[in-house]
């Protein structure tokens, strides 16, 4: 059994929440443990679910390993076919995703809490996020994410959607032996979604796995992330090259936190 990612409707659990998601793996313990030892688990999972696969990519040789949060023009990517999310993470294959800063007419931003039943980063806060599926156009991702995760029709409600960076940003998160040596290599688009109404006036249909949600100002969001960074220095993150350490803090881990803060810095310029 693959565990549903929070904030998604069960039938679309493949498309994921990223924020942490972004990165997150989403398995039941059984699936995780099996996957460590049995390479056929993916085929099995694919055959017994309607999971939609991710398009995976390679960077040209000259790129080597980009540094964290490097913007990369997707035009340079070399398409390498499709893989299940599990397989893409186990093989560390580059894929595409997006995170959405959803802002209402009062200027508050939507944060959502992952349920306590997910294996990766349970009970942590995040924003709307998705993996790109089936090689979809970048611009389609935020529209689909709004529909699947929040039950919103972007054109009906009159949402304005803007990219916060010219190109998606590269990140890599190594989950180490604790998690089957999975590696999340993702190019992430950052989107601002402006809603023309206050959140109280909107008919939300959040995925049932969202444990909690809150609307806060950009300043408060940023201060919270900044305070959360202090958690990093109080834990002994693994010094091993293939392990970026366990999740810690209210926002899962530093990879996601730094991505979120970069988006906030862009928002401060744009808004
Ligand atoms: C892996 O799983 C397949 C079917 O799911 C099974 O036939 C095979 O014996 C398993 N291999 C190992 C090493 O567990
Ligand atoms: C959004 O994307 C377009 C097209 O790539 C680009 O020209 C524009 O500069 C981007 N906006 C920001 C804020 O980077
Ligand atoms: C991490 O920092 C936050 C402040 O954002 C605090 O609320 C939380 O309890 C800390 N968590 C851990 C595990 O230290
Ligand atoms: C931190 O981790 C390193 C490498 O895993 C280990 O050698 C060291 O003893 C740890 N330090 C503490 C204070 O736990």
Automatic annotation (TrEMBL):
Database matches in InterPro entries: NUDIX_hydrolase-like_dom_sf (IPR015797), NUDIX_hydrolase_dom (IPR000086)
Residue spans crossing the bilayer: 12-29
PROSITE patterns referenced in this protein's UniProt entry, alphabetically: NUDIX
Record key words, sorted: Membrane, Transmembrane, Transmembrane helix
One Pfam family in the UniProt entry: NUDIX
Nudix hydrolase domain location: 93-241
Protein known as: Nudix hydrolase domain-containing protein
